């Protein structure tokens, strides 16, 4: 278990849809531990595997006393209510903009042992579930902003001190979870 470098806006892994996890083993448990350690070290409410350069459908969360992880998550919207509020992202450090999300969701997925998990979330937890699931689909929250706010956000991102900096060199070996049956 260790803290991993977080990939920043502009890294292609953040725009690449993640693949489904097919093997629930020690490597997956290590990935979830690394995600959790990194999320806590960075002060985030959630972290998706692509944000540390791993293209698998896994994310961790720690919001308002609810902490855990979801493997191969999906979610359903509950009701028509929406919420608009400040949202940020560890891959877009130091910047936040108002983003509209569904107010209530029910997420379903698996834990690291391949057992089914259901998480019901409202407000911040619902926002986190939607945000992290978007990461797994190659979508960033700036894509969800209204046109005017998105234009402002892109200008602020381009002006950020970290924008355009070379990514840290991380040796990546093929992940054993690709292509094996559960």
TrEMBL record:
Pfam families: Pep_deformylase. GO terms for biological process: translation. Keywords: Hydrolase, Iron, Metal-binding, Protein biosynthesis. SUPFAM superfamilies: Peptide deformylase. The active site is at 132. Signal peptide: none annotated. Removes the formyl group from the N-terminal Met of newly synthesized proteins. Requires at least a dipeptide for an efficient rate of reaction. N-terminal L-methionine is a prerequisite for activity but the enzyme has broad specificity at other positions. This is Peptide deformylase. The lineage of its organism: Bacteria, Bacillati, Actinomycetota, Actinomycetes, Pseudonocardiales.
């Amino acid at each position: 278990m260790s803290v991993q470098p977080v990939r920043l806006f502009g890294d292609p892994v953040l725009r690449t849809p993640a693949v489904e996890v097919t093997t629930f083993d020690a490597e997956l448990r290590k990935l979830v531990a690394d995600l959790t350690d990194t999320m806590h070290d960075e002060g985030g409410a959630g972290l998706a595997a692509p944000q540390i350069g791993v293209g698998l459908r896994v994310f961790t969360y720690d919001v308002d006393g609810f902490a855990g992880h979801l493997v191969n998550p999906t979610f359903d919207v509950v009701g028509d209510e929406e919420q608009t509020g400040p949202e940020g992202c560890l891959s877009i450090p130091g910047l936040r903009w108002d983003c509209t999300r569904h107010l209530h969701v029910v997420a379903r997925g698996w834990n690291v042992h391949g057992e089914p998990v259901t998480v019901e979330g409202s407000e911040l937890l619902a926002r986190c579930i939607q945000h992290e699931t978007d990461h797994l689909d190659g979508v960033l929250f700036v894509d969800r902003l209204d046109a005017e706010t998105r234009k402002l956000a892109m200008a602020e991102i381009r002006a950020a001190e970290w924008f355009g900096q070379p990514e840290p060199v991380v040796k990546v070996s093929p992940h054993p979870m690709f292509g094996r049956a559960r």
